[in-house]
Amino acid sequence: MRIIDCHAHIASFDFLPKSFFNARSQTVTRQLGFPEQNIDRVKELLFGLLNDTDADIWIEEKRNAGIEKSVLLVIDFGLAFDDVLPIQELTDKCIKIVQKNPHSFIPFFGIDPRRGLYGVTLFEQAITAGFKGLKLYPPCGFSPSDPSLFPYYKLCELQQIPVLIHTGPSSSLLSFKGCLPSDTDDAARMFPKVNFILGHAGVVNYKEASLMAQYRSNIYLDLSGFQCHIANDELYKALHYHLKSKVGRQLLFGTDWPIHRLANSQKQCVALLKEALHKVEAKPKEIDDIFYGNAAEILNLRKLVKK
Amino acid sequence: MTQIIDRQMIYAILKDVTGEEENNISDSSKLTQDLGIDSLQFVRLILEIEMKSQRKIFNVLSISKLETVGDLINECLKKGGIL
Q1: Do B43 and A231 touch (CB under 8 A)?
Q2: Residue A46 sits in which domain range?
Q3: What residue of A is the nearest CA neighbor of B44?
Q4: For chain B, which domains are there?
Q5: In what order do the strands lie in the sheet with A133-136?
Q6: Which residues contact A69 (CB under 8 A, 6 or more apart)?
Q7: What interface predicted TM-score (ipTM) does this complex get?
Q8: CATH number, domain containing residue A15
């Protein structure tokens, strides 16, 4: 079976800032109901996730899992956190990793639209340098349907490349605003030729996302984060709902590497989702599409007539 | 002072974390697929074991290789914790 992971990051503080993980450690400690004194150990474990700056461990794990390609998402945290690299440096680092592993990664350029026209210029340069999509992170403080993003979407339309937008909770230091699937609706309606991937929306706020996907063929839902929804059959319920709603052609496999690597290797992620899809009686074609076909189509990896 | 953590204690922690009865748990049970442990519960499992044994047992590289209850027990054994 061929596999594309459509949602992943470099496991490094260069790409995922320490302040982000500090806040995440506090949230995890609180969610687990552990006393505050445990936060240092939680922090130590979570910080340990980011020990793969050159992606060597990741490449090995991907090989073991049979993951052909991974969409490598760069997030522009520059206007939200102080402890981040300048956006151009971040982009250059990403290019170097991709050049070292040219067949393994599909890089998506990250930008905060509040950077204005300078950001659009950077995006144009990034496309020329080989970036194949746009990554937006609304928790930093903007709406995915804000008009300041329209020049970016126009470029995506022109270049026929997709946009991946984070949805759902993020860090306690960042905003919840702009993170519902419906926050992308205006953009998806105004740019029907651009494919919008709603990150995590296959499992978070999935009913709203599924409804959007039913009405808009340019809305795709990635399943990354499914590793948090194993308990209480939540993943099965979400998958069953999507397949029953006939949006299987708009679901995408994603691991969100390295966020869940404590609990699941890349190989385990593939096995888990495959097993869950079998359990909800997905057809073999649906399984192939979710793991590969749907992503291959919107990433222009194979020529298919758009439905 | 560190505590020796035994197999029974690990099973009790697994029961507590997963809500599964101990007789439904075996060394060959897969932590995620069979016991339904998601990524947050996984952190809880690790911390509960370390808190009970009062020592650090796991690191990212060792944790990511744990697939079954047996793997978990063996990892604790490597640190001299299991009777």
Answers
A1: no
A2: 4-298
A3: A32
A4: 7-78 (1.10.1200.10)
A5: A4-8, A69-73, A105-110, A133-136, A163-166, A196-199, A219-222, A251-252
A6: A4, A5, A103, A104, A105, A106, A301
A7: 0.85
A8: 3.20.20.140
Six-digit token string for A67: 């993951």
Residue A304 lies in a domain: no
Judged by DSSP in three states, A58 sits in helix
Q: Tell me the whole-structure pTM to 2 decimals.
A: 0.94
Q: Provide the Cα torsion A120, A70, B58, B68; round to 10°.
A: 150
Domain count, chain A: 1
Residues of B with CB under 8 A from a CB of A: 31-33, 36-44, 46-47, 50-51, 56, 58-60, 63-65, 67
In a domain, residue A305? The reply is no
Classify residue A282 as exposed, middle or buried by CB count within 10 Å of its CB (0-12, 13-18, 19+): buried
Q: Which pLDDT band, with edges at 50, 70 and 90, does A103 fall under? A: very high
Cβ-proximal residues to A292 (8 Å cutoff; 6+ apart), any chain = A1, A2, A3, A4, A68, A253
Chain A partners within 8 Å of B47 (Cβ): 32, 34, 38, 41-42
Q: Per the domain annotation, does A307 fall within a domain?
A: no
Let me know: does A138 contact A166? Beta carbons within 8 Å. yes
